[in-house]
Amino acid sequence: MQVRSFFERALRRPRSVPHGLRLAPQLSRGLPVLGHSIEFVTSTIELLFRAQRELGEAAALQVFNRKMVAMFGPEAHEAVFRASDAQLSASEAYKIMTPVFGKDVVYDAAPEKMAEQLKMLLPALRDRRMRTYGEAVVLETEQTIGKWGEVGVVDLVDFCRVLTNFTSSRCLLGREFREGMTEEFAAVYHDLERGVAPIAYINAHLPIPSFWKRDRARVRMVEMITEIVGARRREKREGEDFLQTLMDSRYADGKPLSEHEITGLLLAGMFAGHHTSSVTTAWTLIELLRNPETLARAVAEIDGVFGGGQPVSHQALRDLPFTENAVKEALRLHPPLFLLVRVAKQDFTYKEFFIPAGTWIVVSPTVSHRMAEVFPEPDRFDPDRFAPPREEDKRDFAFIAFGGGRHKCLGNAFAILQIKAILTLLLGQYDFELAGDAIVADFQGLVVGPKEPCRVRYRRRAQPSVSTAAGAELARVAAQGATAATGGGCPVAHPATETGTETKTKTGTGTGTGTGTKTGTGTGTGTNPTDSLPLPRAGEGRGEGVSAPPAPATTGCPVQHSPASAPSTRRLTITLDRDLCQGHAVCVGEAPEVFHVAADGKVEALLREPPPDLHASVRRAAAYCPTRAIRLDEG
Ligand code: HEM
Ligand code: SF4
């Protein structure tokens, strides 16, 4: 007996496994030498679902010469996402991006430099900037759907891709790029995208045409960005975009970013944000169309907020809780990034599992989001699971469509804002129905979207609730420096936002011209949809929710008058999880007396127990914090 257990131990556990720990169990059906390689290449997602079903939290796989451990569920995610870069490296796993982002940029840079570079993106993602982006998204959406007729058919995937390409390039690369967006730019960007393929994991410099094109495209992209940087500096123009933020950024030693680095960081933003936002917009609309009662509620909510002529502002968009939950639910069911990877640089321990250095650790939002013990009835599209009292995403590291912890998505607030703005303009103006194409997820690319064709039929609503001139109106409001969207007679003291500052910059600089263009376009295309058609066939699709939208509850105050706004005399204690904080300062916008951005770019709470007159704004800060870094305890 003793002899047998000796051999078992000798065979199964390398001597380096510390006492009391064990290796993660091996997934079944591994082939000699090849392990799980074939299944991994041909049906990755099915393999990962099988791993979770068979082995639970941790499953060991062998893919080619790599040892992998797939980890599932909130506790395992937390261990992975909170680990330091020195322990679990994201860079190592995403090295295939180096030929696109460039040498010594983001994942190719040393961890401290990468952290510094990513931190430079933060000012571009702060609350104040977000207002400008909201405006840009509204404008772009209006221009794109301005070309639609009264009725028609569009391929939703293609439509979302083109639209978010416009919005991303305007917000990230700037107005010059977007407005002069030539065929050359589209071709260069396309070549860069085509140069990112799984084969790069074997060798990112193989002598193949797509890699040659990729390398030529990168050189050209640096030239294009250098031209714009030079022109802005020469003409002393500034933009409200990522490009400007990066032009103004400095390393800790005072050195500015080179054009090579600026290009790399902008491309990192484009790659991270473009397709992910595009497919999420498409998935949300598809799920709403497949679930007519949820569609009716989203439309009613949009009509309620915007039906009274309210501009589609950043502030108003925040207060579409059902629509936002629908976006999150689409992200839960269809997370665009289905595989997140880290490489263990040191031995790593999770519970009783010992994971040796060199192992690739994979986390799959797609699989973990379908665990019934975390999200009951996991296959059901049910936006209310994120609303009180259920709040199924409240459990830390359960909802991981944006990753979590140290490398959590920096653009999550921007992405949600953008998707809600697009949905508001679409659903406020048109009725949609699926045109009958099979809806299937396409797991072939790095970002999982619906397979094309994925056509929808649209018909202009008889009584659109959102004006087609919303972008122009928004630009006008911003230009007046008005605090966005306080509505008539809202009793809540809206914080003095920084909109004024932003507007000043806009009118005083290059972006001012942008505003002019916006107004022109908005009014040109938009105006009165008074020539509306009769409503689509009665009783069809979502029915009543559309034809008879409930009247706005009040005069259009965008703030949820929930218990969150009620005056309080109870004690309120703030706990801030700085590991989760991304420093985009939504909380500072809500409660500047309590939160401030510290030198490391993250937020600090100045008061642990704020006085009762600040409770309402602190509750709003916690409610709007996209990472749930702020916890409140009522005493
Ligand atoms: C629905 C849209 C989006 C989804 C689902 C998404 C998802 C994610 C995920 C899962 C990660 C973590 C990757 C990992 O842990 O390995 C991530 C990281 C990141 N995302 Fe997003 N993203 C979205 C939109 C955006 C946008 C719009 C931007 C910027 C404009 C952006 C910028 C970034 C950046 C810079 C990182 C790297 C953060 C770091 O490594 O510290 N993302 N994103
Ligand atoms: S606490 Fe939340 S809202 Fe405030 S900066 Fe951090 S992540 Fe953003």
Give the helix/strand layout.
Elements: H1 2-12, E1 22-23, H2 37-42, H3 44-55, E2 58-63, E3 66-71, H4 74-82, E4 88-89, H5 90-93, H6 98-101, H7 111-121, H8 127-145, E5 151-155, H9 156-173, H10 175-179, H11 183-194, H12 209-234, H13 242-248, H14 259-290, H15 292-306, H16 314-318, H17 321-333, E6 340-344, E7 348-350, E8 353-355, E9 360-363, H18 365-368, H19 412-429, E10 430-434, E11 441-442, E12 449-450, E13 455-460, H20 470-479, H21 499-508, H22 510-525, H23 544-547, E14 572-576, H24 586-590, E15 595-597, E16 603-605, H25 615-624, E17 630-634
In short:
It contains 25 helices and 17 strands.
3D structure, described in words:
- This protein folds into two domains: 428 residues, Cytochrome P450 (Cytochrome p450), CATH 1.10.630.10; 72 residues, Alpha-Beta Plaits (2-Layer Sandwich), CATH 3.30.70.
- The chain has 25 helices and 17 strands.
- A five-stranded mixed beta sheet has the order 2-3-9-6-4. A three-stranded mixed beta sheet has the order 1-8-7, with no helix packed on it.
- Strand 2 and strand 3 form a beta hairpin.
- The termini are far apart.
- The N terminus is likely disordered.
- Bound molecules: protoporphyrin IX containing FE and iron/sulfur cluster (SF4).
- The site of iron/sulfur cluster (SF4) has 13 residues, from helix 24.
